[in-house]
Design a protein that fits this description.
The chain has 304 residues and is α/β, with parallel strands linked by helices. It has helices at residues 43-50, 73-77, 95-106, 111-119, 135-147, 165-182, 193-199, 217-221, 235-244, 263-275, 290-298; strands at residues 3-14, 17-23, 26-28, 32-36, 58-63, 66-67, 80-83, 153-157, 185-190, 202-207, 210-216, 227-232, 250-252, 255-259, 280-286. The strands form 3 sheets. Strands 7-8-9-4-10-11 form a 6-stranded mixed β-sheet, with helices on both faces. Strands 1, 2, 3, 5 and 6 form a 5-stranded antiparallel β-sheet that branches. Strands 13-14-12-15 form a 4-stranded antiparallel β-sheet, covered by helices on one side. β8, α6 and β9 form a beta-alpha-beta unit.
Length: 304
């Protein structure tokens, strides 16, 4: 598999403390790669090292097949768009005027501005002063600036921070379209796990500076050990059958939860429960949510 971004042993130390430790990222080309972790896990620090915004303590970064060094850093970054932390802008200028400044700095054709304005759906707001923009519009302007020049790699750090649900949905849809429409690789960080579930192809999870999971999104979901949820009119009778069969269970919100069984085993168990007079009126398969999987991987049980 070809990777757009690959790191080996990427490490950052501050005052002798490792805030990012031996991270080996592998971001495939033309995909959305979700970089997840709780606040303070090392996401932003890692992205800043990829962009040469802070110095690497150890390890190496390869982007587009080229190992980043002092000689080729500028050439590689010309093929990279980014939005880190919050968008930069001149509030007294219009959206279009801000884009013209970036277009001049990037030395890209003027027609690129119309292209990115359409892409982020802000044609109607381009002549409005940016200080009058909503937070969501400022985020879109930052994305438009990052997209100027049609970069092969787009790095976004928490791009939906502070947005309302409608704004989150708009940014999510835009990011989801970029690999197919423009052949772009998008590396996007977030602590909002539901976003990644709807947007990413691949995910990496960082916790306390260490990469603890990296693979396709569906592989992450395979870490979800499904459970059977049984609703019974006579729970006492049901519990006797389960105990006799040696099946552990727990009571959760008025229903019995037990480990997932093979289809044949489930069918036999339901027959025995019916014979016992348990009165089973609902059988469900319950999967862990992405957040529950994340918590089981990181060992965190509090708020993200």
């Amino acid at each position: 598999m070809e990777y757009m971004v690959e790191t080996k042993g990427l490490t950052k130390q501050y005052r002798g403390k490792e805030v990012v430790k031996d991270v080996d990222l592998k971001v495939p080309k033309a995909c959305v790669y979700g970089f997840m972790g709780p606040n303070g896990a090392g996401k932003s620090t890692t992205l800043k090292m990829l962009l040469s915004l802070i110095q690497i303590s150890a390890g190496q970064v390869t982007i587009g097949g080229m190992q980043v060094n002092r000689k080729n850093r500028i050439a590689i970054l010309k093929e990279t768009g980014s939005l880190i932390e919050s968008p930069s802008y001149y509030g007294h200028l219009t959206g279009r005027e801000n884009l013209e400044i970036v277009q001049t700095l990037k030395k890209v054709p003027g027609q690129e501005i119309d292209k990115v304005l359409k892409l982020v759906r802000m044609e109607e707001q381009q002549d409005k002063k940016v200080r009058e923009y909503s937070l969501g519009m400022k985020q879109r302007l930052g994305l438009a600036e990052a997209l100027l020049g049609n970069p092969s790699l787009l790095i976004l750090d928490e791009p939906t921070n502070g947005l309302d649900p409608a704004g989150i949905q708009e940014i999510r849809e835009l990011i989801r379209e970029l690999p197919e429409r423009m052949g772009m690789t998008v590396l996007v960080s977030s602590h909002l796990l539901g976003e990644m579930d709807q947007m990413a192809d691949y995910v990496g999870i960082i916790n306390h500076g260490q990469l603890i999971f990296q693979d396709k999104l569906e592989v992450l979901h395979e870490h979800s050990r499904g459970r059977l949820r049984l609703c019974a009119l006579n729970q006492g009778a049901a519990l006797k059958v389960l105990k006799r069969e040696g099946i552990s269970c727990s009571l959760n919100e008025g229903a019995l939860e037990l480990p997932k069984l093979e289809d044949g085993e489930t069918a036999c168990l339901i027959d025995r429960l019916a014979e016992s007079g348990a009165g089973i009126y609902r059988v469900e398969e319950k999967q862990k949510s992405l957040e529950e999987i994340f918590l089981s991987l990181t060992g965190r049980r509090g708020s993200l």
